[in-house]
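User: structure tokens for this one?
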Amino acid sequence: MSTWHRIDETPGEGRVRTAVVDGRSVALTRCGGRVGALDNHCPHQGGPLGEGSIENGWLRCPWHGYDYSPTTGKPPAGFSDAPVAYPVEERADGTYVQLPEVPERPRSVSDVLVETLVAWGVDTVFGMVGHSNLGFAEALRRAEARGELRYVGIRHEGAAAFAASAYGKLTGRPAACFAIAGPGSTNLLTGLYDAKLDGAPVIAISGQVPSKVLGRGAFQDLDLSAVFRDVAISTVTVHAGSDHAELAATAVKHAVDGRGVAHLVLPDEVQDLPSDAPAARPEGRRADLRIAPPPLDAALDRLRTARRPVMIVGQGARDATDAVRALAERLGAPVLTTFRAKGLVPDTHPLGAGVLGRSGTPVASWLMNESDTLLVVGASFSNHTGIAAYKPIVQVDDVPSAIGRFHPVDVGVLGDAEVTLRALLAGLGDVAAVDQRPDVAARWAIWRAEKGRRAVDDRGRGVASAAVFAALGEHCPADAVIAVDVGNHAYSFGRYFESAGQPVLMSGYLGSIGFGFPAAMGAALAHPDRPVVAVTGDGGFGQYLAELTTAVKYGLPVKHVLLDNGVLGKISKEQLAGQYPVWQTSLVNPDFTAYARLCGATGIPVHRADELDDAMKELFAADGPALLHVHADAELV
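Assistant:
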């Protein structure tokens, strides 16, 4: 069965052009007064005939110079290959081409893979469609049309990986990032290393060149499993004879159970192979990872006898918030967090002491120094956090290698944070600890007075960071998710922003500049019902400027606080600290307010501290993506 379709515009005499008719690419020609319509694929290597030229009455393929009749598609004598020619009629009301009905695509290997990923809970994909992943992209399109997943087409694959990493950090469930062979896949690597080092589940999917040319030096021919072997828990190439559903299921299982990256490589020709295999289901394939601890006698003895215990909690305790607060209140113990766990206990809580370490507050450091026992839960003991190794330490973690990773601890407890803290609370009994709430309040009073003085500092060269984060603290919704980039602004955010319990996303152990805005996009997809805030500097945002258009395209209502000081400030400080001259850290920036508006977002400028209050109100009242462009003082951090 076929249908006639009217063509709005035909080429001039001796010309050829490409037209999309009923979703199909057609090469339209006019030669000798006749109009021709050919399938727009040279039968040799698929060259686009519509981009060719008509020479001496022949249509010449732009790729290899093969000739065809412009109207019938027949080649010169002695040749037999020919593109399909479609019937054409020139009627009184225009020119018409007759095309056969588009046959329904059979269910493919890619459909099996996508259906399995969906069954295992993967509902969000960030990526870029291209020539070596088109079959899989079609399966994603079908799943999206069925309402089973959301696809976000990004502008750079690195942003896709960062967004997927942030999604995994926030939810504990994997999103997928998707790229073509060669450079598309290698562009994923930085964001995937962020996921690896921070323990975020991610599925990475790479298109690949056809198997028959793989390893022979073909265009974009890379051994992708070799490339991804270090960053991924597993990397597997899907072959024609593979158990396709099982490979997709195993990838999700590896990513979630191992808290990291699982990678699938899809050769071009395998993606469209027909398949009637069922999707693999997750039922009965997952274990309960909430590990119960061994006997807790030693840990309980330490906590019962401690006079000034302090709790230090990291990202590994994020799902144990209620248990952390309950045990802290029972002990009267301050709760200090790592930067990644900022907000786990709000700074407004009587025992909330803020962040410990280089990005932290003097409240937290003073309380740690005055303590006689540290209960450390779900923290990595990073050197940037600075947990005092000379203090008696009870460490709780659900990863064996984390216990005593850098130095001995007094009591190591292998167990899930929630389960273990509940068990400690149940077995604690009488304690010797003093109530440290008055100490916490006193240290906050001292620090808030200092923050107030810093917030009004003004050298006439931009807004002080203390003022920016005081205003953000006043206006940021309590249920927001905050994604923070890397740089001086991040240190200032850790020190000055008082959290009401908002979770913070950051590139923790990779410390990759550029993370902030793509991560906010990932958070917006993970929690479309919550406000999402990005906090970046001009250096980090400059790496993924174009992703603002992605946020606009998909209506991701990210509220972006951008501190623009015209310099890579953190690097400048490091050069000075190393007794090097400051060199090559200055930046040439656009007017970010104007840029945001050109992209279709709201742009709000701030030049003075007294503009912050109204600007923050406008930022959070704006529909869709909005950017608050703060002209910041590079020295007042």
